[in-house]
Specification:
Layout (H helix, E strand, L loop, with lengths): L13 H11 L4 H23 L10 E6 L2 E6 L6 H8 L10 H6 L16 E9 L6 E7 H6 L7 E5 L6 E8 L5 H12 L6 E3 L2 E2 L18 E5 L2 E10 L3 E11 L2 E3 L1 E6 L4 E6 L2 E6 L8 E6 L13 H23 L2 H6 L3 H7 L10 E4 L3 E4 H9 L4 E4 L4 H9 L3 E4 L4 H13 L3 E2 L6 E4 L5 H18 L4 E8 L5 E3 L10 E5 L4 H4 L8 H22 L11 H8 E6 L4 E6 L6 E2 L6 E2 L8 E2 L10 E6 L9 E5 L2 H11 L4 E7 L2 E7 L4 E9 L14 E4 L5 E3 L2 E5 L5 H4 L7 E11 L3 H12 L1
Parallel strand pairs: 1-7, 14-16, 19-20, 19-21, 23-25, 27-31
Antiparallel strand pairs: 1-2, 2-6, 3-4, 3-6, 4-5, 7-8, 9-10, 10-11, 11-12, 11-13, 13-16, 14-15, 17-18, 17-20, 22-23, 24-25, 26-39, 27-28, 29-30, 31-32, 32-38, 33-34, 33-36, 34-35, 35-39, 37-38
Length: 751
């Protein structure tokens, strides 16, 4: 079969590609100088290895000259042949530094970006090079004008030259604008000051400084070896300035392969200089707990192309080296009480890395002016002494405990140190001083008010938090507090023992309220304030942390009812205001509006979901109509304030009806009803929405509360004949004036 296809070369708009590369790599004169100086150093290091020369040999001198807009870098390294120039320097992506020789010599670069990228900051670039013992050198040259005028790839001019004799390379760039020589010198001097190669900037030596001279050992130690996650490091730990801990790094092995490593660290501050045989690759920050600064010099580290940052693999290796040394520094600090006092920042690391058990040398203050190490406290605990810990200031309690031979350890103000000490003491059976209260005397002859307070408190704990295994003991407590849970950490199967000072001023002042609905509300607030956290942790309504148990809440916040005609109790009102007769159903006694109703003895235990009040005369006209029972959970939680709300109304839409009671100021009760069908008119047209004010008031009947229904909705909530109506009811209490005091009760409402 004939092949009619043709082929063509891939096109490239070279100037656009060059602009993109230059922007990412050599975007400033600083990057140009840095990268070409890096190449010069690499060539010198390979020459030193080939000729077995010292890196500081004068024959390997590197010169940097800056005059106006011309930057010239001359090295006396291995040099390049014409083929090297063509295929390595002037070919994007090629590199002669990916060899074993280059790695062994400690070459910094290996990317092969090529000379073209220099033209991002150069109008013209000249590269002259000669390899040792070659027949001669070569001069190559390329300018922006050749690039802009080229069709396809530009042509690099090549001609013989002896300027680099006897060996080495000269890179000369004509920059797009003049540069400040002093600024370039400061920049490059910071990078090469610790290089051993002799590097000159305008004939001034800027390299050869000894690394680590600023770290003076105050106490030397033998060389140690530390292993950490496949990395093995050798070096020494020592003190700096008599108090700061430091380390010298002397060797490295990764996965069993040895490599060059040197460095000096201070375990304070933040920021490392990363070097490769003295050449500064970058300033680098490692996430540490205690702070690490200094420098690391390692042959295994490499920068990103054209940028003063590490590549990902090198960054991970530095992180391992620092993590290993940070751990050893913390362990060394923990060996000395003196160092511990000077390095309090270690305690976050200690807790995070499971070193709390090694805190025996930590010194703590104790009640009575005593000072102990944690090892001494542990020994006392093992000998039978009871250890308490907490903040200073609970004088009444600490004096009682101390007089009985107990040890009270005061926690420091530093949060991380305090948390670490608390964890250590907890491991030896110590008890948190917070909440440790002495029961001074038990009250026996209780007044009617005191008995009522205990009874109402017990009811609140049971109904609101659903915690039923509780023992309340009245008596006087130390620390001038009104209530205390004696065994807060006991299991749910154990009775919770609560000590209550019913004669404390916070309790006694409630006596003037009498046994009223306001009194009950105040007892509920008292319970929430003093016992809320403990009761939440034991309540099935909440998780142990105090967060709402959403599964429990979803299950208990709403109730599904099936309304039948049997759920309706008809209440007949007689002419007398104080008598309500139920006709053939039942008899109750009530007063108009919110009032106290005593059911007939025959009605005990009956809880109809619907009540219809009928009567004769104008006196009761506002009470006539149907009423829907409010769920018991809402009635128990805040029924006393629901009935005090004077404004009532209803809003409906779709299949939802919202019945509202409000005080007209800042609080409201919401009683939501959801039907299993849409609200429709007789001709099956959706009502879409509606809202009315309700004249009737909430009634207290049959041991609960009943909300008046608007006449417009009776057809949807009142069953007739054999009709069955399924509804879901939910309740919420909103209090915007005192949201804090009602926060827990709002959750209780959800129950």
């Amino acid at each position: 079969m004939a092949n009619n296809s043709s082929s063509f070369e891939v096109g490239i708009e070279f100037s656009s590609v060059l602009a993109a590369i230059s922007k990412q790599i050599y975007d400033t004169p600083y990057a140009f100088l840095r990268e070409n100086l890096q190449n010069a150093i690499d060539a010198s290091r390979m020459q030193a290895r080939r000729r077995n020369l010292s890196p500081g040999d004068p024959s390997l001198r590197i010169d940097i000259e800056v005059q106006g807009d011309i930057v010239r870098i001359r090295d006396r390294g291995i040099g390049m042949s014409s083929d090297d120039l063509r295929h390595l320097y002037w070919t994007i992506g090629a590199s002669g530094k990916r060899t074993e020789e280059a790695r062994a010599a400690g070459c910094v670069g290996m990317f092969g970006i090529g000379g073209f990228a220099n033209l991002g900051v150069c109008e013209k670039l000249v590269v002259i090079s000669q390899a040792e013992q070659s027949g001669g050198g070569n001069r190559t040259e390329l300018g922006r004008s050749e690039i802009d005028g080229a069709i396809g790839l530009p042509q690099v001019a090549l001609q013989p030259s002896t300027e680099a004799f006897p060996r080495g390379t000269i890179v000369e760039g004509v920059l797009t604008g003049p540069v400040q020589g002093n600024q370039l010198r400061q920049y490059i001097e910071e990078i090469v000051r610790y290089c051993r190669e002799p590097i000159y900037f305008n004939d001034n030596l800027i390299s050869g400084e000894q690394p680590g001279a600023q770290y003076e050992m105050q106490a030397s130690t033998d060389t140690q070896t530390w292993a950490y996650e496949g990395v093995e490091i050798s070096g020494k730990l020592f003190k700096i300035d008599h108090q700061t801990l430091g380390a010298s790094l002397e060797g490295l092995s990764v996965a069993g392969e040895p490599s060059q490593l040197s460095g000096a660290l201070r375990f304070e501050g933040d920021g490392l200089d990363i070097r490769k045989q003295g050449f500064k690759l970058c300033a680098h920050t490692v996430n540490t707990r205690i702070g690490v600064s200094g420098f690391i010099d390692c042959d295994l580290l490499s920068p990103t192309a054209g940028r003063d940052s590490l590549n990902a693999e090198s960054g991970a290796l530095v992180a391992k080296i620092v993590a290993a040394m940070e751990r050893e520094a913390v362990l060394a600090v923990l060996e000395s009480s003196e160092l511990i006092e000077q390095h309090t920042r270690i305690f976050r690391y200690v807790r995070t890395n499971g070193l709390v058990g090694r805190m025996g040398n930590v010194v703590v203050q104790a009640h009575g002016g005593f000072v102990y190490s944690l090892d001494e406290v542990k020994a006392r605990a093992n000998s039978g002494a009871q250890i308490y810990f907490g903040a200073a200031g609970n004088a009444a309690l600490t004096n009682v405990l101390h007089s009985r031979g107990h040890i009270i350890v005061y926690l420091p103000s530093d949060n991380h140190k305090a948390a670490a000490i608390r964890e250590f003491l907890g491991s030896v059976g110590a008890t948190d001083l917070k909440g440790q209260v002495e029961f001074v005397e038990q009250y026996t002859d209780l007044s009617r008010f005191e008995k009522a307070f205990l009874a109402e408190l017990s009811e609140t704990i049971s109904s609101v938090y659903q915690v039923n295994r509780v023992t309340l003991t009245p008596g006087r407590l130390t620390e001038d507090i009104p209530i205390y849970v004696a065994n807060p950490s006991s299991s749910a199967s154990t009775s919770l023992r609560i000590l209550v000072d019913v004669r404390h001023e916070d309790v006694a002042k409630l006596a003037q309220l009498g046994i009223t609905s306001l009194f009950r509300s105040m007892v509920s607030a008292f319970c929430r304030e003093y016992l809320g956290l403990t009761l939440r942790s034991r309540s099935p309504k909440f998780f142990g942390s105090g967060a709402v148990n959403l599964d429990w809440l979803a299950k208990n916040r709403s109730e599904t009812w099936i309304l039948l005609t049997d759920d309706i109790a008809v209440v007949n009102r007689a002419v007398r205001r104080d008598v309500v007769r139920a006709g053939d159903v039942r008899v109750v006694t009530a007063s108009p509006g919110p009032g106290h109703i005593q059911p007939n003895s025959n009605d005990e235990g009956i809880e109809p979901k619907l009540v219809k009040i009928v009567g004769a005369g104008d006196d009761f006209a506002g009470l006539e109509g149907y009423y829907l029972r409010i769920p018991n959970s809402a009635s128990v939680a805040y029924g006393d304030v629901i009935v005090a709300s004077d404004d009532h109304g209803a809003v409906w839409m779709g299949n939802k009806i919202l019945l509202l009671a409000s005080d007209g100021l800042s609080s409201a009760f919401q009683f939501e009803v959801r039907l299993d069908r849409l609200l429709l008119t007789a001709d099956a047209t959706s009502l879409s929405q509606g809202a009315v004010a309700i004249e009737g008031s909430i009634q207290q009947l049959f041991g609960g509360l009943y909300f008046p229904l608007p006449h417009e909705l009776e057809d949807y909530l009142v069953p007739t004949g054999n009709q069955e109506i399924r509804i879901e009811v939910l309740c919420d209490w909103l209090d915007f004036a005192s949201s804090r005091s009602w926060e827990a009760r709002e959750v209780e409402t959800a129950a």
